[in-house]
Every structure is written in C-alpha cells, then in structure tokens.
Amino acid sequence: MKHQCDTDILSGVVKYETVIGLEVHSQLLTVSKMYCSCSADYASTPPNTHVCPVCMGLPGVLPTINRRAVEFTVMTALALNCSIPEHAKFDRKNYPYPDLMKGYQISQYDKPMSVNGYLVIDIEGRKKKVGITRVHLEEDVAKLLHRTTPEGESYSLVDINRAGMPLMEIVSEPDMNSPEEARLYLVKLRSILQYLGVSTGNMEEGSFRCDANISIRPEGSKEFLGKVEVKNMNSFRAVYRALEFEEKRQREVLDTGGRITQETRGWVDEKGITVSQRSKEYAHDYRYFPEPDLPPLAFSREMVEQVRAALPELPEAKYDRFVSGYSLTPYDAGLLTDSRPLANYFEECVGLAGKSGGEKDIAKKAKTISNWLLGDFTRLLNSSNTRIEASNIKPWHLVEMFDLVDRGTLSGPLAKTVFEEMFSSGKTASAVVAERGLVQISDSGELAIIVDKVIADNDKAIADYRAGKEASLTFLIGQVMKASRGKANPAVVRKIIVDKLGGN
Amino acid sequence: MNDLHRLTIHEAHALLKDKKVSSVELTRSVLKNLEAVDSKVRACMRLTADTALESAAAADKAIARGKASVLTGVPMIIKDNMCTKGVTTTCGSKMLENFIPPYDAHVVEKLKAANAVIVAKANMDEFAMGSSTENSAFFTTHNPWKLDCVPGGSSGGSAASVAADETIYALGSDTGGSIRQPAGFCGVVGLKPTYGRVSRFGLVAFASSLDQIGPITKDVTDCAIVLNAIAGHDKRDSTTVPLGVPDYTRALTKDIRGLRVGVPREYLVEGMQPGVRKAIEAAIIQFEKLGAKVDRKVSLPNTRYGLAAYYILAPSEASANLARYDGVKYGYSYRDTTSMWEAMEKTRQFGFGAEVKRRIMLGTYALSAGYYDAYYLKAQKVRTLIRQDFDKAFDSCDVLVTPTSPTVAFKIGEKADDPVQMYLSDVCTLPINIAGVPGVSIPAGFADGLPVGLQFIGKHFGEETLLRAAHAYEQATPWHTMKPAIA
Ligand SMILES: [Zn+2]
Q1: What is the spatial distance between Cα B326 and Cα B275, in angstroms, rounded to a whole number?
Q2: Measured between alpha carbons, how far is B27 from B60 in angstroms, rounded to an integer?
Q3: How many degrees, rounded to 5, is the angle at CA B467 between CA B462 and CA B468?
Q4: What is the mean pLDDT of chain A?
Q5: pLDDT for the residue numbered B225
Q6: How far is the C-alpha of A232 from the C-alpha of A228, rounded, in Å?
Q7: Residue of B nearest to A282 (CA)
Q8: Residues of B with CB below 8 A from A288's CB?
Q9: Domain of A482: which CATH number?
Q10: What number of other Cβ atoms are within 10 A of residue A483's Cβ?
C-alpha cells in the first residue's frame, strides 16, 4: 500500500480518499414535546401557541422526560444494531442564543442511550456496513424569523412552538467514502425511521436534518487533513451536491499545495457552493454537566428485549420478502422499500388484487402494480409534490382500474389517460371511463367498419404487409386505434386485420 | 383578642375551627402588626393585603361549610423565589423586578388549595445567593431581635417575618442553609426537608441538586403541619420521590428515651462563638435529661471539604440555571443598543448583582474545558464521600445535633465585603444539602442577646424522627416562646 502511494507521488498523481461522517437530527413523532406536555404538532399552528412555562424556559420550571421519546430512541437504536447501556443520563449543554429558551439544551453527553451500531448500505449490489457511533435524545430549539422593517432596520421574531420538540441525534462513524455512499446512508436511515414510525423523515420541512463532516486524505493514509463540517443542506440532493463540491474543493486545495482549514462551511444551494461560516464570536465550550433536574435512565434487559421483539418489519426484511414472495426484481424491490409509505401502498394493492389466482398470478399482478407505482404514479406524485399517503388515488382505486383493463373494459393505452384523470380528480376509473365514453370497443362488427376504412386508406402499408413486412401490421393497428380514439381493443383489431388480409 | 398575630398555626386553627375567631379577623391582626413593624424589619418584598383579605373571606366560608384543613384561613408569607401567579416574583433581583409568573409553584398551588392566606412575598438575597439578605437588589431585612443585625439569609425575609409576628408562618428555600441559618439567627424553627421530599416546581432555581423548599414556623408542631401540606411526589418534579407522606404531627410524642443523638465533633468548629458553644453544651445536657443517649465521638471527617465542594457544585449549576436571564423573553432588558449580543451582555451586566455574577463566573470557570475534572468532577466525588459520612454516622445514631451557625447574627455590613467570611456562616448547614438529608434549626438560647440555633440532622426521609427529637427538646425548653421587642 505504502509502495503504491509513493509511486503515485513520484508520478505526480496523489490518489485521495474521501472520508465522510454524518450527524442526523430527527424530530420524533411523539404526541407531546420532550420535556413538557405541550402538543408536538407545532408546525401547523400559529406561532407561540403550543407553548407552556416549561418549554418557554420561564423561571422555576422543571423538565420531565417524555417516555415515548425514550422508547422511540431505543427502537431506533435497536434497529441500527446499537447496544443499549444499563444506564444513561441527560446533560446540560450550555450556550447562549435567543432560540435556546433556558440558555442550555438538555442533551446527552458521555452516557448516551445507545452506542456502537451499524447500518448496511447497498452500493450497486455490494453491501457495506456504516458504523453508528451513538443515538441519543435531546430537545429542539425555537425558530428565529429574521425580518426587516420598511425603514431597513432588521429584527428577529421568536416562535417557541418548536422549542422542546424531541430531537433524536444519530451520529455515524466516518465510514463513508463518497457523496453517493452518504446519500445511500441517508436514504436507508430515513426509511428505517419511517418504518419504525418514529419520524416523518421529511428533510424539506426540517424534521430530518443532516450535517456532514468531510475530509480527504492520501489513499491508505490514516491521518485526516483538516475536517470540514458542512451545514445548511435541506434535501438529500443538497447533501450529495454539497459533499461532491467539497470533495472537489478540498482536492484542488491540496493539489495546489494548500492546506485544508478545519472549519464549518455552509451550503448555498442556489449557487451550488459551500462558503466558510465565520466562526462564532468565541470558541465553543459547551460546559456539559449532568442535568440535575432529571434522574438517570435505567434500561432493564427485559425492557430492551420487549422493545426489540415489538419492532416492526424493517426495510431489509421487507426487501427480501418482496423479492422472494412477489418475484420482484431487486431493483424494483429496493425502490419500493426505500419508502415505507410506498411499500405499504404496494402491499395494500397486492393484497386487494391478489384475492384470486395462484402464485404465478400474484407475481404477475405484483409486477404490474410495481410498474405503475414506480412509473406513472411516482411521476405524477413528484410533479405535483404530493405524498403518496395524501394522494387522491387509494390502493383500491388502482386495483379497480387494473380490473377494468383485465376485463377488457379499458384498453391498456387509455389506462394512462384515465389514471391521470383519476389522479387529479379522485374519481374512480369506472367513473372516468363512463363519463368520457372510453369503454373499450371489442365488438368485431363495430371494429370491422373502422378496419375497412383503414385498409382502404393505406394501400402502401397493405402492399408492404403482403410483401411480408411485419411492421406494417403494427402500423395498421395503430391507425385503427387512432381512428377509434384509443378505444379499440388492439387484440381484436389485430385478428380482424389478419383475417381480412389473409396470411400469417 | 389583640394578639392574634402572635399565634402559632395550631393555636390559630383551634380558634378558627371553633369559630372563636374568623380568618378575616386573624388576617387583619397579622396585617396590622405587619404594617406596624415591617417599616423597621423590612421583611416583605411585596404585600398582598387585598387578595389576602379575599382569601380570608373565602377561607371563612370553607370553615363555615366544615371544609377546613389545618392551614385554612391561616396567614402566611412566601419567599420571593417561589412563583405566584399574577404576583411579582423578583428573586430579590433587578433582573426579575417586574416578572409576573403566569403560574403557581407546586407548593403555592397546595397552599391555595388549602385556602391559605398569602399576605406577602418575602425579601431574600438575590437568587438565594447570600446569608444575610444584604444581597437583595432592593433592601436589607433587619433582625427583629436587634435591628442593626442581619436576619441571616437567603430566606432572611421569611425568618424575620415569622420572628416579628408579621405572619403565622412562612416558606423559605434552602440550598446551603438558607432556611436554617436565618431561622437560627431569628430564633424560629426552620426545616430543610430531605431532597426530593417537596416539589421544586415553581421554585426559581439556584442550584437544582441542592435546592429544597421548607417551612419557617414558630414551633416544631407548626413545622410538622406545614410539611404535611407541602410534601409529596409531584410528577412535574422528577426529583421528588414517590413516597407516601406520613402525618408528621403524629411523630411529635415528646418521648426520646433511648434515642441515639450524635454530636459530630467536626461541627464544633474553631471560631465558634463561645455563647453558641455554651448553648450547644446546655442542649446536650438537656438531651441526656430527656433520656437520649448522646454520642460525642461521631465523626463526619469529610465535612471539612464541604464548603469547597459546595462552592463548586452550587455555582456550576447556578451558571446554567441563570443563563436564561438574557433580556430577550422577560425581566430586565437592556435596550440601548442595536447589537443582539451587546443587549444580552449588558442585560446581565446591569441586571445581576455582584454576588450573583461572582457565582456565575465561579461556576462557568469550574465547568470549562480543561477544568471540569479538577473542579466539578472532584466536587462530585467529595459529595459522595460526604454522603457516605452521613450514612455511616446514621448507622450508630438516629439524629445528629450541631450548631446551626458558628455565630449568632452579625451586624449589617460586617461581612458584606468579605465573601469568604460570609460563606463560612453556612459551614454547618451546607454539608446537609450536599448529602441531601433533612435538617431543622430550632431556638436553643441566646448569646449576646441574639438567638442561637440548634441544628438537628436526620436520615434521608427521616423527618419523623428528626422532628420528634426537635420537638422533645423544644417542649423541654422555653426558647420558642420568647418574642423580640422590636425597637
Ligand atoms: Zn410546553
């Protein structure tokens, strides 16, 4: 290895290795806040309405531990193969800022709720373990809204609704070696949180946040050359782009003989660059000490095993089941299981569709459903920015549409149009078909009239067909479909044409 | 009856229950005396006379319906660091001069539920940091026994108000002696319950692992009565213990025959005032007369580290607890700047007094990177050793007895510029907070015309035995019946 490296240096080409560690903060889907009984459904309400003396940090208040948040954190830790110590404690992390109501955050320092786990990512078929350093529990801060008066004076407003929201921190080991691995890690982590039902995993809304540490080093070397922390990334794509940018920037700095400064950089999405964030007025010394207002947490082995036993099926297991049970391709199964809502939707559809038929039939139906979900449905969801759970189209809508296709009422080509209408209006497929008169024409007599007209208008195609050009048949069928405005049953049309022209 | 304000709770309750006196009459008498003497004693931060009379009228109705508990209709005073809904809670600080809490502290809820009559909020050292009330941002309270002396602190207002009959009883808070030391200085009874016995919810935090609310009363029976009312588990304070609350008054049997009373030798400290030593020696003889077995060999060797450990632990916690006072959300706010950081810094510069800033700096320093192990962690280890000392002592003793303070009340101004001398006045009380055990100070005579306090220390949640011992001594001596002539 060393020899290799020397050679590279001699030849003037240093091979660098990228090292990435991620720190994820995820809000938990608890009913109440972390240390008080205020509703955790803070985002949908006017500013400063979901607050109480405790989360406002008024003089004299005391925190109490949200048991559900602790349970969620243990669930997550177990799903990430972490070990749960017998005791954990909360600590105060001290720093002054107007969004921090008490002047300290109740977090966990040297005795977190879990340590030493891992998560497996799949890089084009290769499995890789990414270490999880720890999963712990803390609280979110208030939201500052920066404003400017018409006179140009700037001021800030504080919305305390978010203060005290339970926040789970998941710290990875610096085990990722490319922006793509980091992206895969986030996708996997988010899907695990969603499967557990502990987080929405929504990065755009800020309920799932990611900071990254990235450094590069000569391949094979153990030393880090100035770790850079990157913040302000609001989507998975932003994380990917920021890391890609930073990787390139650091290489260039080193290649031109520079040094990487250890610093925090912010991602500027519009410009696609990271910029150095002026270090805060003073160096951070959080002066952690044990939170005297909260007793230490004790985890009995029984409790841990109970939580473990109650864990829902996780993405990996579901993936395996989709591949073996429904004969889906690994690729499709991967896409479907990345998101719990999508996977659930898929299974609901399969459940509804699979009431009849054998194993082979199930696989066929599953394939059709998967194609629709990953194709047109995903496209429409993305372009309208809709979550699948919130979509107009419920699983039974989709299955009813398939049923119409199966029974010959709706033609395959028209199904797409019908689906789009269903998506925007929420109507059933049969309602759309009836309203728009899209019932498939399978009646031979009715179709024969159209076929005759097409034959009369397409001498050249007829001649080509008779000369043995198969493609001409497809062309002719297409002409009939067009003339029937898509309603003709293509199989019946084909038979009529072949019969009329003789041969084949 | 002219002297209703001089009554104890149990005496007042007997009259109220039998409808010989109404709560309104009792409250009027208390307010009248308060108005007469408080211009000299200056125990009260804020009078709540109007609402007091309303509560008294409501209490009379409850009594008429036969719904009277022992505290119903009895006037009382609350230290100004316990939140009272709609009534300013200043903590003796300019920082909270105009702070009106939107909620009641747990103890205040309990008292209101019992139809107690709150007549005033009491003066105190700023954020309970001090031993004389001289650190109050507003004024100094005077000792009713000698007006040029301090009443002790930080619950000096509460103790002085009880001694001066400005109230029937009061609540104080104790972090290192803040109930017991002023009770001792003022010749009244002051109990710091076991840590976790009384909810701290709504008590403005000084040092969270040491703070405890307790009664300041005219005798031990009243002390047990108030403890009955305020003790117990509160789900909003995770450090309260889910133990049942016994009726502490039933423990007051006066019988301490065979009780093992330890006199830890480390507490008969050098620099102790001769008059204090004499009073303690007399008390020991009294215990023996009452049939207790006195053990003078008990040792709490780590006591000598108590003061040092305390002045690491308490300021460390305080440095975090007081971080929220930044002028952004409530309280004093420095506005004459356009910079956010400057506003926050100046708010703290001008909003806090010197002692508070001194302790914030001490604590910030002790917790800083590179110093944590040498200071905070070490102090925590000392804390463990001190606890073990007490555990061991209680293997052979049922209660321990010490002076409450090495001296009687000192002159106003005498120690104001010497923080270390001031800190030393709590040297006998603060190990008790560090260990988390209960301690009560009761009057035990006089030295130089000022009351001497005798401190009883009990086991964790051993308030029954503790109060039984204190009560037996009290009943055998005349000290609790003596009243200052305020002049
Ligand atoms: Zn709240």
Answers
A1: 46
A2: 11
A3: 100
A4: 89
A5: 98
A6: 13
A7: B341
A8: 367
A9: 1.10.10.410
A10: 18
Two structure tokens written together for A157: 């407003």
Backbone region of residue B152 per phi and psi (left: phi > 0; alpha: psi in -120 to 50; beta: other values): left
pLDDT band at B259 (very low <50, low <70, confident <90, very high): very high
Q: In chain B, whose CA is at the least distance from the CA of A98?
A: B328
Confirm whether A29 is domain-assigned: yes
**CA B216 to CA B162: how far, in whole Å?**
7
* CB spacing of A62 vs B201 below 8 angstroms: yes
Give residue-wise pLDDT tens across range A292-302. Answer: 999 999 999 99
What is the pLDDT averaged over residues A216-222? 84
Predicted local distance difference test score (pLDDT) of residue A358: 60
* Residue given tokens 């998506």 in the structure block: A423
Tens digits of per-residue pLDDT, A45-72?
999 999 999 999 999 999 999 999 999 9
Yes or no: domain B1-487 corresponds to CATH 3.30.160.20: no
CB atoms within 10 A of CB A430: 16
Residue A1 pLDDT > 80, yes or no? no
Distance from CA of A216 to the nearest CA of B (A): 29
pLDDT tens digit sequence for A133-188: 999 999 999 999 999 999 988 889 999 999 999 999 999 999 999 999 999 999 99
Q: How many domains does chain A have?
A: 2
Q: Which of B22, B23, B55, B79 is catalytic?
A: B79
**How far is the alpha carbon of A275 from chain B, nearest alpha carbon, in Å?**
24
- Going from the Cα of B283 to the center of ligand 1, the distance in angstroms, rounded, reads 51
Q: What is the pLDDT at residue B150? A: 98
Using N-to-C axis directions, what is the helix angle for B463-476 and B220-230, rounded to 10°? 160
Average pLDDT estimate for B6-21:
97
Contact B320 A57 (CB under 8 A): no
Structure token pair of residue B327:
């002028």
Please tell me whether residue A298 adopts helix, strand or coil conformation.
Answer: strand
Residue A271 lies in a domain: yes
Residue A372 in contact with residue A398, Cβ under 8 Å? yes
CB A416 within 8 A of CB A371: no
Listed range (B23-32, B265-274, B443-452) with the worst mean pLDDT: B265-274
Q: What is the DSSP track for B130-141?
A: -SSSTT-SS---
pLDDT greater than 90 at residue B287: yes
pLDDT at A5 (0 to 100): 43
Band the pLDDT of A282: cuts 50, 70, 90. very low
Looking up tokens 């939580």 gives: A307
Say which of B205, B323, B341 has its CB closest to residue A60.
B205
What is the pTM assigned to this prediction? 0.88
- DSSP structure class, residue A130: E
Cis peptide bond upstream of A32, omega within 30: no
In this model, does residue A112 exceed pLDDT 80?
Answer: yes
The reply to whether A116 falls in a domain is yes
∠A319-A320-A323 over CA atoms, to 5°?
Answer: 85
Strand ranges in A149-220 using DSSP code E only, listed in sequence order: 154-159, 166-172, 208-218
The type of residue at B44 is C
**Of A55-59, A249-253, A446-450, which range is least confident?**
A446-450
How many alpha carbons lie under 13 Å from residue B438 in its C-beta half-sphere? 29
Write out the residue range of the structural domain in which residue A493 sits: 444-501
Angle at B282 between CA B280 and CA B288, to 5 degrees: 105
Picking from B3, B122, B4, B119, the residue whose alpha carbon sits closest to that of residue B53 is B119
ipTM associated with this complex? 0.96
Q: Which residues contact B373 (CB under 8 A, 6 or more apart)?
A: none
Helix pair A444-457, A490-501: axis angle to 10 deg: 60
Last residue of a domain, one of A230, A253, A278: A278
| Structural domain ending residue among the three candidates A278, A303, A332 | A278
Residue A212 lies in a domain: yes
Q: How far apart are CA B90 and CA B92, in angstroms?
A: 5
Q: Which residues of B touch A152 (CB under 8 A)?
A: none
